[in-house]
Amino acid sequence: MKLGCCYFPEHWPEEMWADDARHMAEIGLSMVRIGEFAWSRIEPEPGRFDWGWLDRAIGTLHGAGLTVMLCTPTATPPKWLFDQMPDMAAIDEQGRPRGFGSRRHYCFSHAGYREQSRRITLALAERYGAHPAITAWQTDNEYGCHDTVLSFSDAAAARFREWLEARYGDIGALNTAWGNVFWSMEYRSFGEVDPPHLTVTEANPAHWLDYRRFASDEVASFNREQTAILRQHSPGRDITHNFMGFFTEFDHHDVGRDLDVATWDSYPLGFLEQFWFSAEEKQAYLRQGHPDIAAFHHDLYRGCSNGRWGVMEQQPGPVNWARFNPAPLPGMVALWTLEAFAHGAEFTAYFRWRQAPFAQEQMHAGLLRPDNSEAEAADEARSAAEAIAMLGTQEAGKAPAALIFSYEAAWVCGIQPQGRSFRYLELAYEWYSALRRQGVDVDIVGPDSDLRGYKAVLVPAMPIATRIFADKLAALDCPVLIGPRSGSKTECFCIPGDLAPGQLRELIPLTVTRVESLRDGVWESGVSEKEGGWTISRWREDVSSELTAEFALNDGRGIVFANGNYRYVAAWPDRSLLDLLIGRIAAEADLKLTPLPEGLRIRRTGSHIFAFNYSAAAIDTASLGLGAPVLGDAQMGPASVTVWRKA
Ligand code: GAL
């Protein structure tokens, strides 16, 4: 794994560049990402390109032995361009244009902006496509950041109508699919259909689902226009895009198909603060991030691009954008880096090289402080570089368990939550964590992936379970754990004629006759004779079946039903129930569990076993029985990493 950083030569006097490049190499960095926001410097006036500074910046970095990843600058179109066609702005759900003055001020559907995006991509590709320093490209920057996937512009509305026409062929089919007879929502032509916003009360969920599918396709096709140009003019270079954390607004599997390497931006402390974690977890992992945040995304994005992936932006210290922005514990930056290494990353780049003293992100740490002195993270990058060199290349190897992650499932649950705490992403994360707490390595894969060869497959929820998907599960002979709401909708967002779980019924003969959601803080309990108590919360289904429940609530209502190698969970299970289920699956599947102390996580590569102590206390790993480590100590300090060679 290479180490690198995100660098903005345009932010610093040219006299500093050579020293920066030398300093990067001295720390152990070997790649630099540049250019993602530099359009106003590359093309200061329409059609007048200023390549000189970029030529020199690339040359200087290259001269110091660094490889360069160049970005297309389309996340920040310059003011002159915005003024030329002000309707390129996305329109928010309230109908307001999203103006100039920050970034991502464009609508994916605007034909004029698409043309500009192709034009600037071509200009960069023609100039630098064959440059020896350029080994990779990044398209744009963080598609969807700042809530920018959905736009309700005229351009989007027009393309949505075309998209619908291509999907349904005639308007009668759309009316039937969506159930538009309800509330007299029937249309006479595609031209009459608008985006699903500014309605008096909620719009039709089928309308929303198609709008989300359409918007996701718009991101993918915008990206594909850039990758096509880059492939033609810069052959042999990897193309990537930096995805975000906990983000499901477009189908990343789809976009990933056009990339060579999927990358993501890892900000564990910001994510802990901004997402659903409990007050206790926020306290316990304040300066480390929850132990599964980084790994979840490593394993998710590894599944988005044929196994090739990296960390494009690694948090080096406090960020500026969360509600509160704590500093990492000493050791965490090195830990996060080595964890990416253990999960198979090709590179980890720190964001950013030097903290900017001006503009929006002046409170965001870098490897250097604004005065050019080294910040805390610089030494940790150095020590991570040394550890990586010492450990040598790691082979990733296939994980024993697969967890199926579906962006469409996230949209369905988001469009019609039915209970406000039914969050698909959180459910998937909980199921993933349950495996990781027991020391199981996991591949998070898309619904279209090849599932053969896994010892266990988990499907946290798959509301739209297609024929193809049901057949894929039916072909498995390993334990398969299927979560609530699976098979509960058709592809056009209706309840299946034979009720849930629809096509999955052939795997598990039961019918969901009624569902209920439960307010926060409410739970119901069950006890398993040998294994102790557990609870369910948020969601529960009434199930009618000849099967005897494997786990039932205290009043007898069944929650888990098993049929051969398939299990269905008719509720939102708590951690204890998940642990019980994983215990049973492991016994059936010869899946080795390694129950871990709170805060400890392990990851195996082909040659080594890595342990990461996310807790703020010491952990003794002697009980793991791994012998003498090759890196770190068996008695692990807070925020530390220990590595053993496999027997
Ligand atoms: C990312 C973004 C970067 C920078 C960073 C700050 O979302 O890609 O440009 O803003 O966050 O943490």
Q: How would you characterize this protein structure?
A:
- By secondary structure, this protein is of the alpha/beta class.
- 32% of the residues lie in helices and 18% in strands.
- The chain has 18 helices and 24 strands.
- The strands form five sheets. The chain has an eight-stranded parallel barrel, surrounded by four helices. Strands 10-9-11-12-18-17-16 form a seven-stranded mixed β-sheet.
- The longest helix has 29 residues, at 205-233.
- The model has no long low-confidence stretch (mean pLDDT 97).
- The protein binds beta-D-galactopyranose (GAL).
- Beta-D-galactopyranose is lined by residues 141-142, 145, 265, 267, 313, 319, 321, 351, 361, 364.
Task: Strand order, main sheet: write it out.
Answer: 1-2-3-4-5-6-7-8
How many DSSP H or I helices? Answer: 18
**What percentage of amino acids are in beta strands?**
15-25%
The helix content is: 25-40%
- Classification by helices and strands: alpha/beta
Oligomer state of the chains in this structure: single chain
The kinds of small molecule bound in this structure are: beta-D-galactopyranose
Mean pLDDT, to the nearest integer, reads: 97
Number of strands: 24
Architecture blueprint of SSEs:
Elements: E1 2-6, H1 17-27, E2 31-34, H2 39-42, H3 52-63, E3 67-71, H4 79-84, H5 111-128, E4 134-138, H6 154-168, H7 171-178, H8 205-233, E5 238-243, H9 252-256, E6 261-266, H10 268-274, H11 279-284, H12 293-302, E7 309-314, H13 332-342, E8 347-350, H14 376-391, E9 401-404, H15 407-415, H16 424-437, E10 442-445, E11 456-459, H17 467-474, E12 480-482, E13 511-517, E14 523-528, E15 532-544, E16 551-552, E17 558-563, E18 566-569, E19 571-573, H18 575-589, E20 600-604, E21 608-613, E22 619-620, E23 635-636, E24 641-645
Parallel strand pairs: 1-2, 1-8, 2-3, 3-4, 4-5, 5-6, 6-7, 7-8, 9-10, 9-11, 11-12, 12-18
Antiparallel strand pairs: 13-15, 14-15, 15-19, 16-17, 17-18, 20-21, 21-24, 22-23
Beta-D-galactopyranose (GAL) binds at residues 141-142, 145, 265, 267, 313, 319, 321, 351, 361, 364.
